[in-house]
């Protein structure tokens, strides 16, 4: 038995009796074990003939405050099957400059810390750490079973500042991220359906999304039988921006000569847009006073509440009845922003009625978007989207059905 316990760390090699120690650096020299024949990295056969030997300096895991480097004599063997070939070293794959133990240590740290922090901590290049993590993700991210996908949720998130977006698609039943791609146009999301394939596309029953015409048209093109389900949150938010805000501004402009009243209306945006259940007691009182004093604001606020009821209908027939009732009220309101919204809304109503059958929404993705923002912050700006998108897939592997 070799007396030096360090030999246990590097299979097939023994440690030279003297190690060079410099400030913060420990250099350990290895030599091939006398009783260990080199193994061909191609066919894994043991070889006795050595073609040549080169000394490679590689990085090992740190020891206390020391950076540990190894000087490893790497042999090229004369394999009768493969010809001249590098020997196989189990703890040093290929032409790596890091040992398997060091790579494993980097993989463990990068799960918990930003890439930049790990690079600084270990004294490695950012690209080296990123490449290690990229290989880990490619190895660990599981390819979804496309034959089991029936319902999808599609949404977009901000990729960078300046209105650059990416689209994410998840399996509504398992909440696994299936695909992430840059852009939110038809051309940008088409690769997802090409990846899904005609057979899997034919099995899709429903797709939840916001009122994005590009997504809608692409779904109808590839999954003609699928029902599009529009998300409650996005539609109500759109009503708030295009109708309630417009009416509020118009009412504020009409009160130019009544500055106190104009000030109240002008500052009422969040009171009108927030759900009544989320208001504090004093805010609820202010809202009630505002609505009682301003009939147009009262009208659009009640229409907003009634619009939500479309998503809670027990059947598609009831949803359609509620829609017709809401449309009649909107068109008879006398408010141009409401009427304009109702006319445009007619083209999307089938996607709302479908929610009575398919209880789906993008709220799951809204929660995911918060975690995606954390991933972006930890990255300090990923240098390529493939890596970033792999990080997203790894963060949402899905759950068992």
The largest sheet is: 6 strands, mixed
Uncertain residue ranges: none
Total number of domains = 4
The pLDDT mean sits at: 88
Gross morphology: elongated
Q: What's the gyration radius in Å?
A: 31 Å
The SSE string, one letter per element, is EEEEEEHHHEEEHEHEHHHHHHHHHH
Q: What is the count of β-strands? A: 11
| Assembly classification | single chain
Q: Return the structural class.
A: alpha/beta
Number of helices: 15
**Helical proportion?**
40-55%
Estimated share of beta-strand residues: 15-25%
Our measurement of the CA-to-CA distance between the termini, rounded to an integer number of angstroms, reads 53 Å
What does this structure look like?
The chain is elongated, with a radius of gyration of 31 Å. The chain has 401 residues and is α/β, with parallel strands linked by helices. Helix 3 packs across helix 15 (385-395) and helix 14 (363-379) packs across helix 15. A hairpin with a 5-residue loop joins strand 8 (164-171) and strand 9 (177-182). The protein folds into 4 domains: 1-95, no CATH class; 98-140; 146-231 and 361-395, Ribonuclease H-like superfamily/Ribonuclease H (Nucleotidyltransferase, domain 5), CATH 3.30.420; 232-356. It starts with 12 loop residues before the first strand and ends in a 6-residue tail after the last helix. Strands 1, 2, 3, 4, 5 and 6 form a 6-stranded mixed sheet that branches. A 5-stranded mixed sheet has the order 9-8-7-10-11, sandwiched between helices. 46% of the residues lie in helices and 19% in strands.
